[in-house]
Amino acid sequence: MTKKNETVIVTALSTAAIVLALLLGSRLWFRLDLTAAKLYTISPASRHLADSLQSQIKISYFLSGKLRQLYPQPGEIIDLVREYVTYSNGKIRFTVRDPAKDGLEEDLQRLGIYPRQMQSVERNEATVSNVFSGILIEYMEKTDIIPFVFSLETLEYDLTSRIRALVSGKVREAGIILADSAKTFDKNYRNLTGMLQMSGYKIREITAGDEIPEGLSEVILIGGVDTLDETALSKIDGYIQGGGKVFFIIENFMFSTATGSMDVIPLSDRGLLAMLRSYGVDVQTALVLDKSCLTITYQSAGQGGMPAIRLIRYPFWISVTREGGNPDHPVTSSFAGLDLFWANPLTLSTVDGLEAAPLLSSTPDAWLMTRNFAVEPGQAFLFTQEETETSGKKVLAAALSGRFPPYFGYGDSYDGAESRIVVIGNSEFLNDEYLNSDRNLTFFLLAADWLANDDDIISIRSRATGTNRLDRILEPEKKSAAMAFARSLNIVIIPVIVLAFAIVSGLKRRKKTA
Fold this sequence. Notes:
single chain; 514 residues; alpha/beta; Glutaredoxin; seven-stranded mixed sheet; 15 helices
């Protein structure tokens, strides 16, 4: 056989092998997910969704062609949804449609899928386009939507929770009681309600003292220490006795600037704190301070009376680190941290029939302020007045489950249903005026899912709670040393190693050619 014939045969066989590989790859494929949180691999809960399907589910991804051309995220979204199709045994059908080409823009907006403006640069010219990237889920005449999606971060959670709700016919509805008269939903908690709705919850606002409707997944109570009377509390206690779940987001202080400075005023309890104590949670009349805290800007009088702006560490604004989460509880098993603003510590006690667990804790370097309250940044010399006698780790949030003892009389033979509650001694951590991180909302949603008994999909959301925030090293001296080492490593050490390698390689080549 001539060399020319060998070349032809090898080329033909190679071409055939490539064609066969492509044909086989269209049927058999796999992806290697190397991300730490396995963001590209759906969980067992999502894989087994098809087991409960009585009919086919249709997932439609409405994607503008321009967005698909300019960004890689739509391709990642398509790949993830195809994983659902792969594990569904034909019970999930997936299509991708361009709203502009198919003339669907008006129909989509009637469904609640709206375009968003996105900027792009083409030929050195910036343009703004209206683009769609929404998902419609259809199952047996029922529908749900994800209005806009542009990342994988919570996509699996959003899909699985919505499909479950459609299949079960059970709508996840959260009732919210805003019992703090100084706050409103529009001014203070728009992000909270918006995030709940984006996560598939329907929201019902409940006036304190009204009957709590049946069928709610949970109730979220914000404030109420000084406003909820016996009538309102009996409704909440009765709801818990019937198996209802409650997220208590409360604090027992009011902050006033009426005198020109920030005054701390303890609230007079009308029964809410006493009811929680009967459940085994004592929200203390104290403020937590921690060396793991946020840095704030503070304006003071400088030389000549001119205002001076300084950056100071403010120990009342606590940065709860990853280590502050309870790794043994579903809510905080993959905790990424959050920020608290003037938080109250909790004390847990043993109550028959209940299991209590701390969710969030301070660092061991925390301490309390229990008297002579002073929170003005300019009064920092007063912050440590009780540090020696009160230092140590403090519980900042807790979860309880089991049969709660009735606070109001139901008879000696009364036996309540299994229930759950979460208590956190701080409502400002969800207040739009202070909220500066998605970490707080993520913790809130994980707790809400646990209350709604969605334990197995909590892990789906918590996989995406990683943070790039540099809060591992708390002590300023150690943090400065680590930053100096990082600079030296990247600017000096690594370039020197590369240069040395180049010199050694050059000398070796010169010796070989000599």
